[in-house]
Amino acid sequence: MRHVRMTILAALLAGVAAPAFANDAASCATVRYSGPGWTDIAATNGIAAVLFEALGYTPDIATLSVPVGYEALKNGQTDMFLGNWLPAQQKFREDLDANGGIEELVQNLSGAKFTLAVNKPGADAGVMDFADLDAHKDAFDGKIYGIEPGAPANQSIQAMIDADEFGLGDWTLVESGEQAMLAQVGRNETAGTPSVFLAWAPHPMNEAIDITYLSGGDAYFGPDFGGATIHTLARSEWVETCPNAAKFLRQLVFDVPMENILMGKILNDGLAPTEAAVEWIAENPERLGPWLEGVTTLSGEPGLDAVMAAVAE
């Protein structure tokens, strides 16, 4: 199996022109970025970390809530961010744009979605739309399960409750982390109890739970069930100082099936994000060529060659 991977990687390497020597400053050796504790961002952060490390950089990943993470980027405490969900995080993006000094490197994912959903008992009760919820308040115990405090999606839910939209004025938002939310939904699923909760793709929850995404929430989550794109942001000064690292990030794009698999390795198989990334890269070496075209190691050696050697270990 290793021989097959090495043969594919060697072919990829042969097809990529020898890059110019890296001209990243010494200060670029450590790449600082953050994640809010969501598994999808942990997965993509893990891919970036493994590849940065193979290229001779040191990834420094902080776990910060969404608002704190944006402040860290704005204030220069981090260099880049792989998890700018739009439109859910539009107000944070507008704040960064108004402040200046931050630029978008690439849209790294399309086809994502993010809105309220119900489990099978909820769908069986006839809940298909936001407007259906209040008639079944008792079955749902009047609770909407959200993610960590401060998340924009939670703020949207609370705004609905405060405005008594869809008759939800006497409902309660239960804030917790992603894992705690899904654990509760799983317990309710086993007990046959309806749940309404934040759901999104990519995520292996879509395989583990019989999910029905609710229509009718366009005003709060956007059209197409909260259809979203995810973007990579970086400090303009960092991009100028670290063009090689920035080039790599401009080319680092993902897709929903890939992220579902990566997240499953983390959530279901118990792998750390970097372990999941190493395993996925070894299984999908053909993805390395486009990501690393024209990218070098920090010391100026061909980047794909360095990653090939790291994967083979």
From TrEMBL:
<dbReference type="InterPro" id="IPR017783">
    <property type="entry name" value="ABC_choline_sub-bd"/>
</dbReference>
<protein>
    <submittedName>
        <fullName>Choline ABC transporter substrate-binding protein</fullName>
    </submittedName>
</protein>
<feature type="signal peptide">
    <location>
        <begin position="1"/>
        <end position="22"/>
    </location>
</feature>
<dbReference type="InterPro" id="IPR007210">
    <property type="entry name" value="ABC_Gly_betaine_transp_sub-bd"/>
</dbReference>
<dbReference type="Pfam" id="PF04069">
    <property type="entry name" value="OpuAC"/>
</dbReference>
<feature type="domain" description="ABC-type glycine betaine transport system substrate-binding">
    <location>
        <begin position="30"/>
        <end position="283"/>
    </location>
</feature>
<keyword id="KW-0732">Signal</keyword>
